[in-house]
Specification:
This protein has about 170 residues and is mostly helical. It contains 7 helices and no strands.
Length: about 170
């Protein structure tokens, strides 16, 4: 007797059990949430202006409280780190195209998708590290009175205050 279509759908091409649909959905959902957070932080830093953060944990308020010129410098540092790490805009786009292709593959290869996620998360870590280093350098270079004004803007950002004025020196 031959296997039914439903039975074949839950197995890899070599007869091994495949990845359950709920695991695939969980992986894609997790990836989407992680990429959303990383994209928001990177987009804010690279653009040099932005709106109130959606989450108060992480580096968003710290960057938002910087003067505009320093936010722009942090964005430049992040872009330089991305280029130095080989993560050009084209490479990032290609990486997401590869993710879409892997997600549509039948049978789905968890191993290949996991390797891609590892590369993408390493790139996100590169952005976070570059942003952290740039932020620390800006804060370390501030005079005490500048740091006090920065702390005031950060306190306002943490309370959910206006971010449009957070970049004023």
């Amino acid at each position: 007797m031959t296997e039914s279509e439903a039975e074949r759908g839950s197995q890899c091409g070599d007869g091994r059990p495949g990845t359950p649909l709920w695991v695939r959905i969980l992986l894609v959902g997790s990836l989407a949430l992680n990429l959303l957070v990383v994209g928001m932080v990177a987009g804010f830093a690279l653009r040099g202006e932005g709106r109130a953060p959606m989450a108060r944990d992480g580096g968003w308020p710290y960057v938002a409280a910087l003067p505009v010129r320093d936010r722009l410098a942090v964005g430049r540092d992040i872009r330089q780190a991305l280029r130095a790490g080989g993560m050009t805009r084209e490479a990032r786009r290609s990486s997401f195209d590869e993710a879409l292709s892997l997600l549509r593959d039948d049978p789905f290869s968890v191993e290949r998708f996991e390797a891609l996620l590892s590369r993408q998360f390493a790139a996100a870590s590169l952005v976070q590290d570059a942003g952290r280093r740039a932020l620390l350098a800006k804060i370390a270079a501030m005079r005490p009175e500048e740091r006090a004004r920065y702390a005031d803007r950060l306190a306002e950002a943490m309370r959910g205050g206006r971010h449009g004025g957070a970049g004023r020196p």
